[in-house]
Amino acid sequence: MFIFSITGALALAAPAFAALGRPILFSDGLSPHVDASFWAHLNPTQSTVSQWDWGYTPQQTCFNNANSNGVSPYDFEIFAVKYTDCGNAWVFCRHHNAALSQIDMIDLFGRLPVHERQWVRHVIAVPGGGSAYMSNADVVFQGPVGTPSVFQHEVGHAVDFYKNSVRSSGTSKFLNAIQQDSCVPDNYANSNEVEDYTQVGVLSMYEIVTPGGLDTLNANWRCFINQKHALDDFQRDNMTPGGSCTRRWADDVKVKMGPAVPRQKRAPIEEASGLPVPGPSYVAPHVHKNLVFNATEQLKAKERQAAWQKGDAATA
Ligand SMILES: *[C@@H]1O[C@H](CO)[C@@H](O)[C@H](O)[C@H]1NC(C)=O
Predict the structure, then answer these.
(1) CA-CA distance, 78 to 254, in Å (whole number)?
(2) CA of 301 to the centre of ligand 1 (A)
(3) Record's superkingdom (predicted)?
(4) Which end of the chain is more exposed for a tag (fewer CB within 10 A), N or C?
(5) Measured in angstroms, how far is the CA atom of residue 51 from the centroid of ligand 1?
(6) Best substitution site from 33, 39, 303 to test ligand 1's pocket, by max atoms within 8 Å of Cβ?
């Protein structure tokens, strides 16, 4: 029966969250302040990839997100990524014209701590103007948004919605913290408490991985300290790099890409059984501005992946 609740989930309207109207710390967004450190200090996780043959059934969610993005499900690459820190692979879907390459997706997702990644079901990339969203524990990247801060932000939504029994950003503890503080991180955070929580999460991640912590931002970051403390209480235990996965979602149900797929085609990978199915959630796409990309790291990721694929475990 859960099949119906999953397919129905996309039809849910976005909840109407109120704009916060708070003073902001950074007027140019977070990427110019955090991504150079993330590129340097969020280390990639070793992985190997296996491609699904074309026509094999992608997950229902890839099909749904293709349709909602106005692109054809036939044009997707489906691939399973097995990171060394989790027994089950993650199934990714990528439209062949997406700005993010397969390696961009694998590298950026793999840089995040596994205890955050384990709240995400599928990773999806489609063409677009530079935005991203989270829906039903899937993270969807539209266009050129290949930076660690964007991945942390979208994966952070899944942690917010699913890690605790209620959405952490909607608790009175977090809402009161917003009122006690004199700022939110940036304009994006001012959209509503959901975006604010997740932007605070990006800065909390910065603190965790950056030598010298938030003081190296050269900004009055203590203006959001109550929000940061609240977020840390809710999820900092899942934001520390290292360890291995302690939970996973079941993969979404498999469907054919469409009627052109031959009848005899079958999905190549058996699903692990007994894993939970995420309840519905939806955070609307938001444009990410002023992103700091890193061509050097992109190139290194390509070389790393090629070595790992050949079984050269020594390359890091
Ligand atoms: C790119 O990543 C390297 C770490 O490999 C870092 O030292 C450098 O500052 C980054 N460049 C940019 C533009 O973020």
Answers:
(1) 11
(2) 13
(3) Eukaryota
(4) N
(5) 30
(6) 39
Each residue's pLDDT tens digit in the chain (316 positions)?
Answer: 233 333 334 434 444 577 899 999 999 999 999 999 999 999 999 999 998 876 666 678 898 999 899 999 889 999 999 999 999 999 999 999 999 999 999 999 999 999 999 999 999 999 999 999 999 999 999 999 999 999 999 999 999 999 999 999 999 999 999 999 999 999 999 999 999 999 999 999 999 999 999 999 999 999 999 999 999 999 999 999 999 999 999 998 877 777 777 766 566 565 667 898 999 899 989 888 899 999 999 999 999 999 999 986 554 4
- The Cα 280–Cα 36 span in angstroms is 34
Q: Quote the ligand 1 centre to 192 CA distance (angstroms).
A: 31
Please give the structure tokens belonging to residue 149: 């801060």
- pTM, to two decimals: 0.91
Query: Closest Cα partner for 138 from 262, 229, 250?
Result: 250
